[in-house]
Design goal:
The chain is mainly α. It has one domain. The chain is built from 2 helices and no strands. 0% of the residues are buried.
Amino acid sequence: MILEDERRQLIKQIQHNIAELAILNDGIRNPLAIIEAVLELKLGNFHSEILTQISRIDSMVTQLDKRWAESEKIFLYLQKHNGIS
């Protein structure tokens, strides 16, 4: 059935998107923490502008994290109520 095939493809895409958001979140946050620590050690108080930019990036990652969590909740809801696997 075409509709069933499309439904399966959409489910796979949602699962893929959720997994990518989780990987992206870790891939950005971990290096940011290292950069911030190195800057603190090397530059002392002269790194405020860089920290401001890191904070902006961290805020964006937080938004991605929220979207991931919302996507995961939606997917779990659909699984429970529509029998998707």
